[in-house]
Amino acid sequence: MEVAKKGLKVSFKVWLKNNVPQYLTYLEIPAAGLEGQGIIGVSLIDFRTNISDDSTPPSLAAPSIDDRTQLVNGNVVKTTDLNPELETQFQFVDSKKLRLGSITVIPGTLKVKVEGKEYKLIDEKEEFTADDQYKMVVSKGVTDLVFKADLPAKNQSEAETKVEVSYNKKVYEIKTAEINSFPIHEDVYVELNGKETSLAKALYRGTYFYTLANDNGEIVYINAFYKDAEAVVRSIKGNIMEVTLIKYGKAAFVDTVIIEDWANISDSTGDVLNLNDLRAGDKIKFSVDPDSGYKVVDIIKIK
């Protein structure tokens, strides 16, 4: 019993005599995970995914500590380069300058034509030697095209008819996790899919949460429900679906949900499916909607 820790679920066998338990004959104790100490609160992590061409995409924000609660808040940002995109937009600044904006131009892709004639790009440090030359100047993340000679345009509309600009720009996928931590009030009221439950059950089973705090910043209400919940279909009868929900890659618990009549059902490529296309054993992701009485409104068949 030196390896046993409070909270672990053990498996055991009992020796019976005249159907009366006498003593344990077998005991299996699972390995314990990390042990920690410190302040416990509830962290709300809001995930957002944006596509951006900004030349200075956001980076990791240093976490901060709430002076009153000592809980940690902050942002985690992951930026991934996507395939470059072709762009033709520009802004007329004056007769010798066009602005491409806060973007990053892929080297070798920039082309400029003025009244059908292709102009020559020269290095920013070179001196102009001909009227059909221009430079690309980047200052504080903003990219401009600077010309030696005046362009045959006095405003944006004229420039758009006489000047052609094309280039490939960098595009990023930005995934942001915004972390906000709150203490929990002792009288917190908790629901899971619209039904009153324990805090522990809601935190374990819920995959998305609405919360309400009092004026002291303590959470007094938690509305937990299924959003993008990973599961395996056990059975479907009419619009009633029984599923085994997956947590940390393993089967965790079984639940029964009701599917909304107009629910969106698709496969992993986005092709539309019907409810009849779902079978026992199918792996899915599904979401319920509080505004629909916690009925399932989205199902994606993974495999």
Helix proportion of residues, in percent? under 10%
Mean of all residue-level pLDDT scores: 93
Give the ordered list of helices and strands. EEEEEEEEEEEEEHEEEEHEEEEEEE
Counted beta strands: 24
Strand order in the largest sheet: 7-8-13-12-11
Helix segment count?
A: 2
The residue ranges in which pLDDT falls below 50 over 5 or more consecutive positions are none
Give the overall form. elongated
Radius of gyration: 30 Å
Number of domains: 2
Q: Outline of this structure?
A:
This protein is mainly beta and 303 residues long. The protein contains two helices and 24 strands. 5% of the residues lie in helices and 55% in strands.
How would you characterize this protein structure?
With 303 residues, this protein is mostly beta strands. It has two domains: 146 residues, no CATH class; 85 residues, no CATH class. The protein is 5% helix and 55% strand. The strands form six sheets. Strands 7-8-13-12-11 form a five-stranded mixed β-sheet, with no helix packed on it. The longest helix has 7 residues. It is elongated and about 105 Å long.
What is the element layout, followed by pairings?
Elements: E1 11-17, E2 20-28, E3 42-52, E4 61-65, E5 72-81, E6 85-87, E7 91-94, E8 97-101, E9 111-114, E10 117-118, E11 120-122, E12 133-139, E13 142-147, H1 156-162, E14 163-169, E15 172-182, E16 184-192, E17 195-196, H2 199-205, E18 208-213, E19 219-225, E20 229-237, E21 240-247, E22 250-267, E23 283-289, E24 295-301
Parallel strand pairs: 11-12, 16-19, 22-24
Antiparallel strand pairs: 1-2, 3-15, 4-5, 5-15, 6-14, 7-8, 8-13, 9-10, 9-14, 12-13, 16-17, 18-19, 20-21, 20-23, 21-22, 23-24
